[in-house]
Amino acid sequence: MGKFEMPVMEEKTMGDLEEGLLLHGTWGPQLETAIPAERKARRAVYYKIMFYSALLVLVCYHQLAYARPAATTTQVTGLPQYVLDYAPIVYLDTAEAYFPADMNAQIANTHPTVNLTSIPNPPSPLSVHNLDTLNTFGNNGLNVFLTSNLDVTKTPNWLLGVVPDSTGKTSNASSCAIITTDHGNGLVDAFYMYFYAYNQGNTVLSHELGDHIGDWEHNMVRFQDGKPQAVWYSQHGNGEAFTYAAVEKNGIRPVSYSAKGSHGNYAIVGKHDHTIPDLNLPEGLIVDYTSKGMKWDPTLNAYFYTFDPSSTKFTGLNNSPVGAMAYKGKWGDDQYLDSDPRQPGSFFGFKKFVAGPTGPGDKQLNRKREVLKIAFSVLSWKRWEEWKVGADV
After folding, report:
1. How many Cβ atoms from other residues are within 10 Å of residue 51's Cβ?
2. What are the transmembrane regions (predicted)?
3. What is the pTM of this model?
4. Does position 88 have pLDDT exceeding 70, yes or no?
5. What is the pLDDT of residue 209?
């Protein structure tokens, strides 16, 4: 042969190379027509993959953001499902030492007294089923106290409550009562009553004040035609409320932050001064502290009830014991006398140990009025609380 001749091949663009459409071998007329068709086909497949991938992402996001979560507990006959679907999630403070407690354990570790004196021959054994039999003593039960069997200053184990597990459940501890009041015309109030064995009071100028045995706090969600309208947060005998749209949520469930020790409920984390009743400021003399610590789902081990405003009677659902709700007395010790070694001296008239609280039946379960007030709690850096939905408290 003469000169070595290189075969002449049709020049292809870098774009073709990048798209991986070039084949090994000889270029011919068939290839010239096949390349554009193959390129179009591959691009069509590519665009379809991208479209359906984006669609799948949007569907998954919608499901996570807006779908109603599965009920937190088995459906309860007589209880509207939305009461469970919109039940608050509670976050305990990171430094909490007194966790949600079992109602039966509280009864088992106490004995009934009137005027600091044990009731002779009380019904035995007492339990959540027959606790209301104590209403036959002490002014129809109003003066009855469930007094600790052990010295509470020694911090017996039952006062510490039960730490929620990884699911948020207080295992083997019924620490919540869910009560609904139907006002008619689609207006329903759902009360989520939280029970703790001990309330640790606030520290004021190195003095711990307001401790008591037994502690009932609650959230209330007001529904209209099954839709949540407002959320109430109990705080030291009163509280505050917000529109449902304004509060933080876990899915569709409102978030409630339980204050360290005192267990007052708040819509946000941080400091909450309550020196002046109904005035919630970030700083002050008597301050609650909330943070996003351990999660507690009160619905996972709760009792369920309806409340009839006209008769003031409870009806137990899902075999829930009515005795604990109908009991009119206190869920802890009476205030210790000044002569009691457990009671330090007064601080400007305030005591370290005060009387235990009444139960859910005394928490104004028939709330009719709505009072709009100016509020002082900051929901975010730039948004102030819009509403304060009051009640007959």
Report:
1. 10
2. 45-64
3. 0.78
4. yes
5. 85
Domain that holds residue 117: 81-362
Total number of domains constituting the chain: 2
Q: Are residues 113 and 231 in the same domain?
A: yes
- At 190-248, the pLDDT tens digits run 999 999 999 998 878 778 888 899 999 999 999 999 999 999 999 987 888 899 999 99
Both 111 and 259 in one domain: the answer is yes
Length of the chain, in residues: 393
Whether 382 is covered by a domain: the verdict is no
Same domain, 44 and 124: no
Does one domain contain both 323 and 222?
Answer: yes
Percent of the chain at pLDDT above 90?
A: 63
Return the number of other C-beta atoms located less than 10 Å from residue 239's C-beta: 22
Task: Please give the Cα distance from 132 to 248 (Å, whole number).
Answer: 37
User: Residue 211 contacts by C-beta under 8 Å, 6 or more apart in sequence?
Assistant: 198, 199, 200, 201, 352, 353, 354
Cα separation, 170 vs 168, in Å, equals 7
Give the separation between CA 186 and CA 224, rounded to whole angstroms.
5
Contact status, residue 106 vs residue 197, Cβ threshold 8 Å:
yes
pLDDT surpasses 70 at 357: yes
> 66, 92, 116 — which closes off a domain?
66
Per DSSP, 120 falls in state S
